[in-house]
Write a structure and sequence with these properties.
159 residues, alpha+beta, four-stranded antiparallel beta sheet, 4 strands, globular
């Protein structure tokens, strides 16, 4: 539960910081060149595939391996054993995954003044149907752009 609360805090902070950014991005987005829009679409596709591989690993009980490849941002916020226990506990509650659909991709820029460490984040949101749930559940996979310019997992939640 600690992990979920922590990661939800990160996700919430990203969402809260993202709304003003989205309002500011609309005029900027209209100014993007076709090449820039295509690059963003390609990046979205790559990160969705990456997120799909992360949730597949979690589906298969490999949350420890997920943590092993996570960003230092995630590793500094929660120890491996807490991540694995919380992830496995949360997933046991909702049951086996029966279907998963990408709901969207969002971006956030954190200045580091809130709970979320400074940096660029991308969130991939899934609507996932689990065996123990009547309705699809929101599954969120967050990535941080690390200093080596590689996207790595920064959080995972299922609510």
């Amino acid at each position: 539960l600690f992990l979920c609360a922590l990661l939800m805090g990160f996700a919430g902070a990203a969402s809260a910081q993202e709304k003003p950014a989205q309002a500011q991005q609309k005029p900027a987005a209209q100014q993007l060149t076709p090449e820039q829009r295509a690059a963003i679409q390609k990046q979205d596709q790559v990160l969705v595939k990456y997120a799909e591989s992360i949730v597949a690993m979690i589906d298969n009980g490999q949350s420890g391996q997920v943590w092993d490849q996570a960003s230092d941002v995630a590793k500094k916020s929660v120890p491996r054993d807490q991540f694995t226990k919380a992830t496995e506990s949360d997933r046991a509650k909702v049951g086996k995954m029966t279907s998963r659909k990408v709901e969207g991709v969002t971006r956030a820029l954190s200045n580091g003044k809130e709970k979320l460490p400074a940096g660029l984040y991308v969130n991939v949101v899934f609507a996932t149907q689990f065996g123990n749930e009547a309705k699809p559940v929101r599954e969120l996979v967050s990535f941080h752009l690390d200093s080596d310019k590689k996207w790595r997992l920064s959080g995972y939640t299922v609510r």
